[in-house]
Write a structure and sequence with these properties.
The complex is a heterodimer. Chain A is built from no helices and eleven strands. By secondary structure, chain A is mostly beta strands. In chain A, the strands form two sheets. In chain A, strands 2, 4, 5, 6, 9, 10 and 11 form a seven-stranded mixed beta sheet that branches. In chain A, strands 1-3-8-7 form a four-stranded antiparallel beta sheet, with no helix packed on it. In chain A, strand 5 and strand 6 form a beta hairpin. Chain B is built from no helices and twelve strands. At the A-B interface, strand 4, strand 5, strand 9 and strand 10 of A face strand 5, strand 6, strand 10 and strand 11 of B.
Chain lengths: 116, 113
């Protein structure tokens, strides 16, 4: 079972370079998310997409853009990378549980990004 | 806007000790509550969740959590920890129409053999 797949797993960028983190899920989930994880700060939501064709800002959207290409894929783009964007990035997805009002969110394995 | 507070940033226990990690949230409406665990070098895994019903929720690996609505709390407990429980634990809350999941800052648990 693939679940949530993110690429690349590791990346080193120079300041000012651009790159796109790719994410795909094979669980037919409606909602997808991008988080960043930094020591002592937990996970912070960058952007999310409640359904195909919609995206919305999370807690820390500055410096990022997203694209919900289709139901499966949700990409995160850094247009001009900065050292402050050095972090571990997690993609996640969820499907509203039909038996309740809540979502269970499933995470990818993470992408380690270093900006020098 | 919803928020989550985890007051214990770093906890050190000996094996067989009991564990309780605090989690408080702020949100005015109906909430869904989660505990996730991240073992060293791995991604997040769901430990347990509360949507509705019995406020005492049992999860994997002997963990449980109790939702106390009047205290806005969802503390994680385990009666007897093992060395393999060494990990970082995150409380999270989602609610409202958007179902955004917001995390606490995490608690690092180190269990000494």
């Amino acid at each position: 079972n693939a679940g949530v797949t993110q690429t690349p797993k590791f990346q080193v960028l120079k300041t000012g370079q651009s790159m796109t983190l790719q994410c795909a899920q094979d669980m037919n989930h409606n909602s997808m998310y991008w988080y960043r994880q930094d020591p002592g700060m937990g996970l912070r939501l960058i952007y999310y997409s409640a359904s195909e064709g919609t995206t919305d800002k999370g807690e820390v959207p500055n410096g990022y853009n997203v694209s919900r290409l289709n139901k499966r894929e949700f990409s995160l783009r850094l247009e001009s990378a900065a050292p402050s964007q050095t972090s571990v990035y997690f993609c996640a997805s969820s499907r509203k549980d039909r038996a309740s009002s809540g979502n269970t969110i499933y995470f990818g394995e993470g992408s380690w990004l270093t900006v020098v | 806007a919803q928020s989550v507070s985890q007051h214990n940033h770093h906890v050190i226990l000996s094996e067989a000790a009991s564990l309780e990690l605090g989690c408080n949230y702020s949100y005015g409406g109906t909430v869904n509550l989660f505990w996730y665990v991240q073992y060293p070098g791995q991604h997040l895994q769901l430990l347990l969740k509360y949507f509705s019903g019995d406020p005492l929720v049992k999860g994997i690996k002997g963990f449980e959590a109790e939702f106390i609505k009047s205290k806005f709390s969802f503390n994680l407990r385990k009666p007897s920890v093992q060395w393999s429980d060494t990990a970082e634990y995150f409380c999270a809350v989602s609610g409202g129409a958007t179902n955004k999941l917001i995390f606490g800052t995490g608690t690092l648990l180190a269990v000494q053999p």
